[in-house]
Amino acid sequence: YEVVFRYETWVQYISRRPRPRVDLSPLAEALTADEPGDAAWWFDGVGDLEPALQLNGADESAISPDEFRERVSRFLARAEPAWDPYP
Questions:
Q1: pTM here?
Q2: H helices within 1-87, ranges in order?
Q3: What are the C-alpha distances in Å from 43 to residues 9, 17, 32, 78?
Q4: Gap between the Cα atoms of 74 and 71, Å rounded
């Protein structure tokens, strides 16, 4: 599984204003700490066109999908915006 910021969060969308992007690097570090061996979570960075949080070095995560979803949700609920295309 992975988390991807949609393209619409990178541009000034006219019809509605998407939530600002947040830096998922701290979440990637926390998730990596719970993975065995060389498995590591990586976040591309908020400035990429469609940045993703994804697992590298393993076919599957040791973290269950439910726990992953809960941790991502908790992180997003309290994270400060790191990218906002609007002045």
A1: 0.85
A2: 25-33, 65-78
A3: 16, 23, 11, 18
A4: 5
The pLDDT profile of the chain, 87 residues, written as one tens digit per residue, is 999 987 666 667 677 777 788 999 999 999 999 999 999 999 999 988 899 999 999 999 999 999 999 999 999 999 998 877 666
| Lookup: tokens for 44 | 């591309």
Radius of gyration from C-alpha coordinates of the chain: 14
Distance of CA 83 to the CA centre of its chain: 13
Q: Are 35 and 44 in contact (CB under 8 A)?
A: no
Take residue 73 and report the two structure tokens written for it: 């949700």
Residue 40 β-bridge partners: 56
